[in-house]
Q: What sequence folds into this?
């Protein structure tokens, strides 16, 4: 049907060099902006002003993007609608198909060419993602899996075979492939408001995701000969054309994911007839691909209050045996329609168990559904769909209601990756069905995270290829909130300020505002630090009410639109009524960390100048002073004036602290000259404490400290960050009290990610190392703690060391351990104090 | 999702625990001439390492105190090195562990005197130093980072180590004049 294939020729410009140059230019711009700013001050220790506005780092507001951070009246974005028909070939693990893209130019510009992303080209042996990768370490033991991966990566025939690119009338369109991008030239420039149809015929080999770890691919199960396919970034996708960058021209080389145009999708996926398919979008032809029983169960699940099986574990087990040869040999075509999404992904397998439940979102029902093999049980039926529903609830509360009709979690080879309405998640229990707490909470967390990506960036469509933190950071922050609403003491990995300290004090890092491919310590930089920063902004800087309003405002302003970092920064300030430039500067543009110390405490009291009072004070001070060693030892020596009293005169009996009557008269005269209020003030016994705080880490933050008084009372005091505005190195804070301060503790609730706890106390408190703390703490096992018995509580752990104090080390190659794990009772570990009922899926209408 | 570069190994675990690092706190105890080391390690990583080492799946939550000492201590002994030397039978003491829900703190002492045959600490000379290699978990997670905090005289210096750069310097503070 398609005309002769048009020429597809690679461009000779090395993509590596281009990408490197781009990164350099970006870095240079940032550095130039930083050095050109009027902040570095040679008359002030070279210190920049941490409160200087960051406007010079932001783009100038315009009618597309307003100074308030909202989209402007002239905001525009393109639209791309897709009609795709593909066949998944289970015999050679490949995809073949055709797509028709209707591209609508809503920009005010004429376009003489358009670009497509060809992400599958990243699996070509000569792809930049491969050629630009540093060599892995081969020292020591190299696992077989790593060896296989390296060898497969060298030879896997990945990448697209594009057999034709034509217009709507099947006329060939000139095109050029450059790495992971393809330029398609327009016969005539596409003017504003015009539409263009582009048809592309393509095919590619699917990667073995267990060998070439990527965002999609297949997993082969040797025991039953089946595959699980998780297909993403699998069709030529139109590149975003934006007001801030023109065509998004970053090559796909690994970390930077993607940004795309919104559009409507109509996708037909042909697979072996005994496979189950999960995809972005609503199934259009259930009667053609599902059994009557499955359709009935799905209907029941939509109205159920807990997940129900659409395909039961037994049915999945039967399917994976390929008992029905006729079904295995024939095919079915599943048709899905998705409206207003920026991408499309799907999964397919015979092995899938399928459970579902209808989750109410305002007046709609969203189908929360999970697809997983029996190998994922019993963990998945218990937690996956429940985690989806929980995410819809919590994320909706903090942003906007989930707008799509379905939300899917699939278990397969990909550990965690998100697409509109569908995500892939990897954790599974052990083969014996047991699982560790890490696996359980890892699964719940990764599902919350990946489902949560529907909001950021699938709907709030930030540019991941440039700014990873805009989706990963915001999403990890909301993930933390959702986890904390799952159960008490949920072991969140990210969000608590104290957890980011190690990263923030490390040397190998770049600011959050770093282009995706140049980020060092990716997880900490793009996920952990921004999530923690937002948590601090919410809990400590703005407070929950102001923050939640501003964050929700940002989410709603930019839903189904494309925000940039500036839009986020500006909206949070605009909607909270709080200048936060100092916060963005410190947390997002710098690698400073927080370390505020209590340097010293000075006490001032009112000196009334009353001579009797002063003399008493001086006498007390003198008497309390410890005599010098010589004076003490010489006290017993006989003195000559004692032996010869005639040597004494006036000065031997003179009290230099004695108060003269003239002094008393002068004081009385002074007091008589004061008015009544001044006389009362003069008599006040108030303490004026001046506490000096030193900023060691460089990042300015509020000073939160707790003051304990000698009468047993205490007081929490918070100085806002602007207290550092005149001197970001050190600042004095005045505390006026009639009480006596006993001790002061800085940041007692660990709100600010203060890196050094040992300097947070006055008087200085020796903070033992974790090691010392452990050695000196009483050893009690959980059972003892639960019973409240003393047991060996007083026995230090060090006493529990082996007799000789040494451990026998073992040779490099180790025999199997002699200890045996306790036999599993087949039951998973129970969660601690679950606060929500997490029902087990039940087969609708099925007795088991 | 995290990254595809480096090149494809880190993808699957990045989200599971995005930071993908351990926390190590080290300090030299001059009085006892030992390096005191505390390491926070994720159970999933530790299980993978023990499975790789012993060829048997182990669930951390099920380990008894004795089993932890018998299994984990030898593993640390093989993957922590001081001045390039593996820790022999007498070089490392297992002090104990604090098992949390998804990670554990492991505590060991490394006897410096048994590693350096001629350790001489002289107050007149500059502080000696040791190079510690933290190779723990790297055989199963080549992209993992260790954030190593070295404490000395109340100051803490943090270093991120990796398979490519596994070493960290530990100052030997001369608290006692030995000659």
A:
């Amino acid at each position: 049907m398609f005309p002769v294939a048009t020429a597809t020729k690679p461009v000779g410009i090395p993509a590596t060099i281009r990408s490197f140059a781009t990164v350099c230019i970006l870095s240079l711009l940032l550095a130039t902006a930083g050095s050109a700013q009027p902040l570095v001050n040679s008359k002030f220790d070279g210190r920049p002003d941490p409160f200087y506005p960051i406007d010079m780092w932001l783009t100038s507001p315009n009618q597309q993007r307003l100074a308030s951070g909202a989209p402007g009246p002239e905001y525009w974005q393109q639209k791309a609608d897709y009609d795709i028909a593909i066949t998944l070939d289970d015999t050679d693990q490949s995809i073949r198909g055709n797509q028709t893209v209707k591209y609508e130019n809503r920009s005010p510009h004429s376009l003489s060419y358009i670009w497509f992303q060809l992400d599958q080209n990243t699996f070509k042996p000569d792809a930049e993602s491969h050629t630009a990768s540093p060599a892995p370490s081969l020292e020591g033991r190299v696992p077989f899996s790593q060896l296989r991966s390296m060898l497969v990566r060298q030879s896997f025939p990945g990448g697209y075979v594009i057999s034709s690119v034509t217009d709507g009338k099947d006329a060939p369109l000139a095109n050029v492939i450059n790495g992971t991008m393809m330029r398609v030239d327009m016969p005539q420039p596409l003017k504003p408001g015009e539409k263009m149809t582009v048809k592309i015929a393509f095919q590619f080999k699917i990667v073995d995701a267990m060998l070439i770890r990527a965002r999609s691919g297949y997993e082969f199960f040797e025991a039953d000969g089946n595959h699980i396919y998780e297909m993403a970034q699998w069709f030529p996708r139109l590149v975003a054309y934006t007001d801030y960058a023109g065509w998004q021209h970053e090559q796909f080389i690994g970390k930077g994911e993607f940004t795309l145009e919104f559009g409507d999708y109509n996708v037909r996926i042909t697979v072996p007839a005994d496979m189950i398919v999960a995809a972005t979008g609503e199934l259009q032809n259930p009667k053609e691909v599902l059994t009557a029983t499955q359709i009935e169960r799905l209907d029941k699940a939509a109205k159920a209050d807990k997940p129900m099986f659409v395909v039961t574990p037994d049915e999945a087990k039967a399917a994976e045996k390929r008992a029905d040869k006729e079904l295995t040999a024939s095919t079915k075509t599943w048709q899905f329609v998705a409206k207003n999404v920026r991408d499309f992904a799907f999964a397919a397998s015979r092995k899938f168990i399928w459970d579902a439940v209808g989750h109410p979102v305002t007046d709609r029902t969203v189908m929360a559904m999970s697809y997983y093999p029996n190998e994922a049980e019993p963990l998945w039926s218990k937690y996956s769909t429940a985690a989806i529903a929980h995410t819809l609830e919590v994320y909706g509360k903090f942003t906007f209601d989930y707008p799509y009709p379905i939300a899917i979690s699939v278990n397969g080879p990909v550990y965690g990756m998100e697409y509109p309405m569908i995500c892939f998640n990897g954790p599974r229990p052990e083969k014996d069905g047991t699982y560790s707490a890490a696996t359980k909470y890892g699964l719940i967390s990764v599902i919350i995270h990946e489902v949560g990506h529907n909001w950021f960036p699938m709907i709030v469509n930030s540019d991941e290829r440039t700014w990873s933190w805009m989706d990963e950071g915001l999403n990890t922050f909301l993930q933390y909130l959702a986890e904390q609403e799952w159960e008490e003491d949920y072991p969140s990995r990210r969000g608590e300020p104290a957890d980011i300290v190690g990263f923030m004090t490390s040397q190998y890092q770049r600011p959050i505002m770093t282009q995706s491919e140049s980020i060092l310590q990716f997880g900490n930089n793009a996920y952990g630090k921004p999530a923690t920063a937002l948590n601090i902004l919410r809990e400590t800087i703005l407070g929950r009410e102001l923050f939640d309003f501003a964050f929700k405002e940002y989410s709603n302003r930019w839903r189904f639109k494309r925000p940039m970092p500036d839009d986020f920064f500006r909206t949070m300030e605009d909607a909270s009524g709080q200048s936060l430039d100092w916060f963005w500067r410190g947390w997002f543009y710098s690698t400073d960390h927080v370390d505020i110390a209590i340097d010293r405490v000075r006490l001032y009291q009112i000196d009334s100048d009353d001579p009797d009072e002063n003399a008493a004070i001086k006498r007390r001070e003198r008497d309390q002073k410890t005599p010098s060693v010589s004076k003490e030892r010489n006290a017993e020596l006989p003195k000559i004036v004692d032996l010869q009293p005639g040597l004494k005169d006036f000065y031997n009996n003179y009290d230099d602290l004695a108060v003269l009557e003239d002094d008393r008269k002068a004081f009385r005269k002074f007091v008589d000259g004061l008015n009544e209020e001044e006389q009362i003030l003069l008599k006040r016994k108030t303490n004026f404490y001046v506490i000096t705080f030193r900023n060691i880490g460089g990042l300015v933050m509020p000073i939160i400290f707790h003051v304990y008084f000698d009468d047993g009372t205490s007081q929490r005091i918070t100085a806002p960050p602007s207290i550092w505005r005149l001197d970001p190195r050190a600042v004095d804070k005045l505390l006026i009290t009639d009480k006596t301060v006993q001790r002061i503790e800085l940041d007692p609730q660990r709100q600010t990610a203060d890196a050094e706890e040992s300097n947070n106390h006055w008087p200085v408190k020796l903070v033992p190392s974790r090691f010392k703390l452990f050695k000196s703490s009483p050893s009690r096992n959980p059972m003892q703690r639960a019973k409240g018995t003393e047991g060996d509580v007083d026995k230090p752990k060090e006493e529990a060391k082996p007799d000789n104090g040494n451990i026998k080390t073992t040779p490099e190659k180790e025999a199997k351990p002699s200890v045996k794990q306790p036999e599993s009772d087949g039951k998973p570990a129970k969660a601690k104090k679950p606060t929500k009922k997490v029902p087990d899926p039940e087969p609708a209408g099925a007795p088991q | 999702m995290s990254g595809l570069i480096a090149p494809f190994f880190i993808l699957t675990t990045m989200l599971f625990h995005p930071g993908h690092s351990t926390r190590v706190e080290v300090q030299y105890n001059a009085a006892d001439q030992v390096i005191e080391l505390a390491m926070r390690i994720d159970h999933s990583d530790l299980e993978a390492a023990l499975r790789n080492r012993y060829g048997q799946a182990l669930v951390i939550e099920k380990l008894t105190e004795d089993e932890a000492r018998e299994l984990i201590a030898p593993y640390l002994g093989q993957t922590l090195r001081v001045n390039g030397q593996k820790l022999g039978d007498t070089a490392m003491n297992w002090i104990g562990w604090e098992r949390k829900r998804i990670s554990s703190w492991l505590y060991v002492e490394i006897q410096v005197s048994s590693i350096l045959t001629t350790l001489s600490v002289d107050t007149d000379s500059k502080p000696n130093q040791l190079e510690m290699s933290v190779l723990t978990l790297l055989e199963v997670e080549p992209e993992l980072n260790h954030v190593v905090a070295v404490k000395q005289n109340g100051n803490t210096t943090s270093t991120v180590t990796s398979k490519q750069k596994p070493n960290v310097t530990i100052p030997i503070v001369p608290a006692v004049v030995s000659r």
